[in-house]
Amino acid sequence: MNVKINVGCGLVYKGGYVNIDAHDDTVADARMEAHWLDFENESAEHIECSHVLEHMGLGEAVYALSEFYRVLRPSGTLLLRTPDVEESFRTFVKSGQDKRKLLLNWIYGLDRAGMGHKYGYPLDLIEILLHDAGFSNIQAKRVGRNSHRPELSLVCSREATSPDRQFMAGLRHALVKQGVVDVHDQVTAIDIEDVLRTIRQHIIGIVQGDAKAAPSALVDLALHSPRLASIFLTQLLENSLISDEMYQQVSGVLVELEKANIPEVLVNMVRKMPLEPLTQSQAYESVCRLGLEAVRRAVSGRHMSTETEWLSRPSSVPSTTEGVTLFTEQALRSLSSIHRARGMKAFAQGDLDLASAHLLTALKLDRDSLSAAWNLARVMLSAGESDMSLRYIDYSVVLANAHHPAEAGRFLKGLEADRRQVVMGTQGPPPRPLYDVD
Predict the structure, then answer these.
(1) Is CB count within 10 Å lower at the N or C end of the chain?
(2) Which of 145, 161, 177 corresponds to the end of one domain?
(3) What is the pLDDT along the chain (438 residues), one digit of tens a residue?
(4) Angle subtended at Cα 335 by Cα 333 and Cα 341, rounded to the nearest 5 degrees
């Protein structure tokens, strides 16, 4: 059976297609999300996706294109249409008021359920996304230039044979099904995608029969997320890429690592590393090395090294590490921003103890955060802790010069004013939270 799929059909029913839509079932044959298609692998010869991409954030688009790849047969074709945002903006700046209104609707969508646009996709970005998903022979054309509806129309085909890409597409499908990836949380979805990219070479080795590739990939994934590694392991078994014996050996280890909430343990290990400016990368890499060795020992059936204090959980200041399921640099920054926001709230409310606890945790999670360091210095100033205030002012000066050269002059002027207030005891307005840094 030659299956054709019309993704995001809306009110347009195409004969000879399976018409699907996530929001409107007026004419759709089925309600279905583009990022999780209820079709078998390699079951369709053609997919049409007209003006759907712009309704997705970047993370969702990556997973939708992966689904198109998974469902299409080798050499199957994909037709994409989406607003030409570059041409739209070029036309906007030279148009009158009436045409501008129409163009704004075209660019941003309508304020109705399922009709708003989340993202604009210029041609070069679409081509990158298609290539990364495994599509080739990309032919693009611009339609409707100078009109109020300029669009991009792209036709491409799925690579004929690429077992590693097909495996990755199946893995993404499983990650969405199991709830590990929420495509509407773009930051985390892209963060997980970055983790998956790091094991691409291992996956190529796995499908080519390299016996060492699967354990290496599992160790790398388990460091970041044991749950992610467990689903990866199941995919390997379902694709007959590992033995039942290996599955049984490793699955139990991953369950134990997940119960121990290894990402949370690693986060707390980062917090225990020495606190010095410009050492975030070193702290993260040091914890990764310790974690990799411990996970490698566990996956290979050996005891974990006691030097890593692997399962020790330090007592902590008010924490948001509970529920952490992913250990990456981005996850650390996101967690740091939560502590920073809570610390600044407590600072504004005059609760200096709670403010200092949250801001210190924020800085330990992201040693490159000028906002956390400078606000912590101001909290210490308000609390009369002169030495600690000066320490974090000096810390902030290093970060301002290193990471904010364009704004360094303004930041250094403010830091020097705070330093004078500490050293000379000069009177000034009570220190308040600073929101316009980082």
Answers:
(1) N
(2) 161
(3) 689 999 999 999 999 999 999 988 899 999 999 999 999 999 999 999 999 999 999 999 999 999 999 999 999 999 999 999 999 999 999 999 999 999 999 999 998 888 899 999 999 999 999 999 999 999 999 999 888 999 999 999 998 878 899 999 999 999 999 999 999 999 999 999 999 999 999 999 999 999 999 999 999 999 999 999 999 999 999 999 999 999 999 999 999 999 989 999 999 999 999 999 999 999 999 999 999 998 998 887 765 444 334 444 443 444 555 568 899 999 999 999 999 999 999 999 999 999 999 999 999 999 999 999 999 999 999 999 999 999 999 999 999 999 999 999 999 999 999 999 999 876 667 789 999 887
(4) 100
Regarding whether 150 and 172 lie in a shared domain, the answer is no
Task: Give domain status of residue 82, yes or no.
Answer: yes
Tell which residue, 232, 204, 208, has the closest CA to residue 218. 232
**Does 304 lie in the same domain as 279?**
yes
- The model's pTM: 0.89
- Tell me, yes or no, whether 334 and 275 share the same domain: no
Same domain, 122 and 252: no
Listed residue (433, 399, 402, 405) closest to 418, CA to CA:
433
Strand partners, 155: 79, 139
CB 53 within 8 A of CB 117: no
